[in-house]
Design brief:
- The chain is an alpha/beta fold and about 290 residues long.
- It folds into two domains: about 5-85 and about 215-290, HAD superfamily/HAD-like (Rossmann fold, 3-Layer(aba) Sandwich); about 90-210, Hypothetical Protein, Haloacid Dehalogenase-like Hydrolase, Chain: A, domain 2 (2-Layer Sandwich).
- Helix content is about 35%, strand content about 25%.
- The chain is built from eleven helices and 15 strands.
- The strands form two sheets. The protein has an eight-stranded mixed beta sheet with strand order 5-4-3-2-1-13-14-15, sandwiched between helices. Strands 6, 7, 8, 9, 10, 11 and 12 form a seven-stranded mixed beta sheet that branches.
- Helix 2 packs parallel to helix 11.
Length: about 290
């Protein structure tokens, strides 16, 4: 990007975070200070919950970050919720009926009030997360319970007896599947679900059911309206299919080298991998050019 962005939006898993779910916090702190000195907003955009994103960004509380969570259905900043896009009320019973029939997958429900994990899907959820650790080459914890999973991936979540035992309006149904079955299940869901609900493949064996038309670009649109900002001034980074709308909406979309070909083709530029922390490198070079011209 040759011009000065007003908003920088970054996906987390596979983009900003390394495969071990970390980033160089000291390096980012220096970058964030420089961005804010130029009036540039930094946005964390992810399929994760707001609470999980805050957990990733621990140490950067009250430092002006904006969060696009739940694949665009939830926008928040340090002051709290700014915008939300829940499911249509009439769609919820049908979605629950369909996902309950998929007895081999793990499932949860994220609502405007919290995150709910049904106890009758404990075995499936733990099985999926074990597979995640093994396939990414990470060391398995000695014990891996549903509580471990919830604390790591869904901080603040509540275990309930059934997927129907939730409060608030649903904004996302995360489904956890064997990665080899993800695409096949996604095709089935597109045919089975109401047209107002869309399955979004968002990472390792994960499919998020969200309201049709709601994606990370939705969150950016909400933010642009609040800031009276031009989308042409957005610089966005991503690696997944759920980043494609954001990359296209932004004035300049950047894909990671580890992204699938379809995502790389949707971007204006392709950089290094998440393991190389290529986003931090890109931002440092962008700031260096900006500051050298002043």
């Amino acid at each position: 990007m040759q011009t000065i962005p007003s908003i920088i939006a970054v996906d987390m898993d596979g983009t900003f975070l390394t495969d071990s779910k970390t980033f160089d916090t000291e390096r980012f702190s220096r970058i964030l200070s420089r961005l804010q000195a130029h009036g540039i907003h930094f946005v964390v955009a992810s399929g994760n919950t707001h609470a999980k994103l805050q957990d990733y960004m621990r140490g950067f509380e009250n430092q002006g970050l904006t969060y696009i969570a739940e694949n665009g259905a939830y926008l928040a900043d340090d002051s709290g919720q700014l915008a939300v896009h829940p499911f249509l009320d009439e769609d919820v019973p049908r979605v629950i009926e369909i996902v309950q029939g998929l007895d081999q997958i793990g499932l949860l429900v994220c609502t405007t009030e919290g995150i709910y994990l049904p106890k009758d899907r404990c075995d499936q959820i733990v099985h999926m997360i074990r597979g995640y650790f093994e396939d990414t080459g990470q060391e398995l914890p000695e014990t891996l319970t549903l509580e471990d999973f919830a604390a790591f991936f869904f901080p603040g979540s509540v275990m309930v007896d059934s997927i129907e035992d939730f409060e608030g309006a649903p904004i996302k149904f995360p489904l956890l599947t064997p990665p080899k079955q993800t695409q096949q299940l996604s095709v089935y869901l597109r045919e089975a679900l109401p047209q107002t609900v869309t399955p979004m493949v968002s990472g390792f064996g994960a499919i998020d059911l969200v309201r049709t038309g709601v994606n990370k670009a939705t969150g950016l649109k909400d933010l642009c309206e609040r800031l009276d900002a031009d989308p042409a001034g957005i610089l966005a980074f991503g690696d997944g299919e759920n980043d494609m709308e954001m990359l296209r909406y932004a004035g300049w979309g950047v894909a990671m080298s580890n992204a699938p070909e379809v995502v790389r083709n949707a971007a204006d530029e392709v950089i290094g991998s998440n393991e190389e922390q290529a986003v931090l490198e890109y931002l440092e070079q962008l700031l260096d050019r900006l500051e050298a011209s002043h």
